[in-house]
Amino acid sequence: MRPAIQPIDHLIYVIFNGSSIMRNVTTLILVAGVCMVSFSALAEGKGPRNGKRQPPEEAFSACESKAEGDKAEFTAPNGKIIVGSCQTLDDRLVLIPDDHKPKRRPKSNKDES
Questions:
Q1: Interatomic CA distance for residues 94 and 88, integer angstroms
Q2: pLDDT along the chain (113 residues), means of 10
Q3: Which pLDDT value is given to residue 42?
Q4: How many whole angstroms separate alpha carbon 45 and alpha carbon 16?
Q5: Closest CA to 86 of 104, 61, 103
Q6: Is 41 helix (H, G, I), strand (E, B) or coil?
Q7: Which helix (H) or strand (E) holds 46?
């Protein structure tokens, strides 16, 4: 008497030793799953500024009762006191630290004629 094949054992057998159609379908499902996970992970980082880093909410709160150019400060979650001036960013005032250095964009390789 032959031992009964368990359903999961049969599925594994069909996937790895079965027809080439079954292997192709399995590969397609796995690739689609990886793509969906990758795209959803990329989409999570996107915010209202097209994926650029946003200042912490404390930076916005520090400038709530201020005018553009006013000095302000807040305490970061790590305990460091951040001092800077209020500037407009996406129609909101936000504290920009005094030691903030904007990222430099690479120069374009276009010939200027």
A1: 6
A2: 66 66 73 72 53 82 94 90 92 90 65 51
A3: 58
A4: 37
A5: 61
A6: helix
A7: none
